[in-house]
Amino acid sequence: MLQSHLHSLIAKAHRYQAEPERFERTGQDPLQVMVHGANGDHQVVLREGRLECDCDGFAHRGERICAHVLGVEHHFREHLPPNAVIWPFAAPAG
Ligand SMILES: [Zn+2]
């Protein structure tokens, strides 16, 4: 179950990584990005060195990760501190 959840999260994140037009920077310091997601807009903010998202998936089971923060990490890598996104489970192989 965890595997398939993880799998769909990664598939969605990859889609967002291929579509930079979904990511609109709305704030500089701290970094704030509006993500025009498949199911609506979501706000991702850099807070205390970590990316946080306002979507339901982010808070889901306390994982604190979602396709939006993964997309922001990908597109704004050079504006982020290391470990702005922490994987709550072991990093997937491959
Ligand atoms: Zn999100």
Q: Can you put this structure into words, describing what you see?
A:
With 94 residues, this protein is an alpha+beta fold. It has one domain. The protein has 3 helices and 4 strands, in the order H-E-E-E-E-H-H. The protein has helices spanning 2-17, 56-59, 67-75; strands at 23-27, 32-37, 40-47, 50-53. A 4-stranded antiparallel sheet has the order 1-2-3-4, with helices on one face. Strand 2 (32-37) and strand 3 form a beta hairpin. Helix 1 (2-17) runs parallel beside helix 3 (67-75). The chain is globular and about 35 Å long. The two termini are 19 Å apart. It binds zinc ion. Zinc ion binds at residues 42, 53, 55, 57-58, 66, 68.
Structure at a glance:
Helix content is 31%, strand content 24%.
Taken in chain order, the helices and strands follow as HEEEEHH
Helix content: 25-40%
Strand order of the largest sheet: 1-2-3-4
In terms of structural class, how would the helical and strand content be classed? alpha+beta
Unreliable segments of 5+ consecutive residues? none
Number of helices: 3
Shape: globular
Radius of gyration: 12 Å
Let me know the average pLDDT: 89
List the ligand species: zinc ion
Total count of strands: 4
- Number of spatially distinct domains: 1
Q: Termini, distance in Å? A: 19 Å
The major sheet is characterized as: 4 strands, antiparallel
